[in-house]
Amino acid sequence: MRLGEMNWMEIDNYLKKDNRLLIVLGATEQHGFLCTSTDVKIPLAIADAASQQSGVLVAPPMNFGCSSYFVDYPGTISIRVDTLIKVVDDMIRSLHHQGFKRIVILNGHGGNTPVKVSLGELMNEVKDLKIAWYEWWKAPNVTAIADNHHLKSSHASWIEAFPFVRTSAIPDGDKAPFETNLILSSADVKKAVGDGVYGGPYKVEDAIMTEVFAAALKDVLFMLQSI
């Protein structure tokens, strides 16, 4: 169930029996041969599946994140770190005021992690609030699947290449990994990375992606039960 598709009276009735909420933080940025909304579509799909099984509402997703290192790629829309922190803080304060006390955040974009640190300050201030933070691609149950299949994960590679985010242009094969400890400008990132994929297989069998999705969904359902 999506909060944005309900009227306020329906939401009020929901709050009389449940105070949990799923929030999706994403990004609109280059993902190689995957769609630019990949970091929104994946966590939102997990949230929707969790909602169907648990009845917990899903808030409208945050479609933009911190992607300064990709702004030279057309289609990337980046917001500043302090902007995102303030927006998420405002969102949660609004929702808490209405009665949402237990919130599970599904973050789909690594550039958004400064928000997690900032939420500690909010927790110190708002005593009856509980927040859980989940990043599906880092979750132990997901990384175990990658290990079982002898696969390494990187940005825009197989780990994110679910059928619903692929484009027709996605190639077969692997790409050599790109790694650096340097903080690069977006122009230098584009020069170094090229197509936007940071290395590894461009895609794998759908059966493996189904395993990954099921593992992430199981994690989120557990979090909703235990928060």
Q: What is the count of β-strands?
A: 6
Helix content: 40-55%
Describe the biggest sheet? 4 strands, parallel
Overall mean pLDDT: 98
Query: How would you sum up the global shape?
Result: globular
Please give a structural write-up:
- Helices cover 41% and strands 10% of the residues.
- The protein has 227 residues and is α/β, with parallel strands linked by helices.
- The strands form 2 sheets. The protein has a 4-stranded parallel beta sheet with strand order 2-1-3-4, sandwiched between helices.
- Helix 3 runs parallel beside helix 4.
- The longest helix is centred in the C-terminal third of the chain and has 21 residues, at 206-226.
- The mean pLDDT is 98.
Mind sketching the topology for me?
Blueprint (H helix, E strand, L loop, with lengths): L7 H8 L4 E6 L12 H17 L2 E2 L22 H18 L3 E6 L6 H12 L4 E5 L5 H9 L25 E2 L10 H8 L6 E2 L4 H21 L1
Parallel strand pairs: 1-2, 1-3, 3-4
Antiparallel strand pairs: 5-6
Helix pairs in contact: 2-7, 3-4, 5-7
In short:
By secondary structure, this protein is α/β, with parallel strands linked by helices.
Describe the structure using short key phrases.
227 residues; two-stranded antiparallel sheet; 10% strand
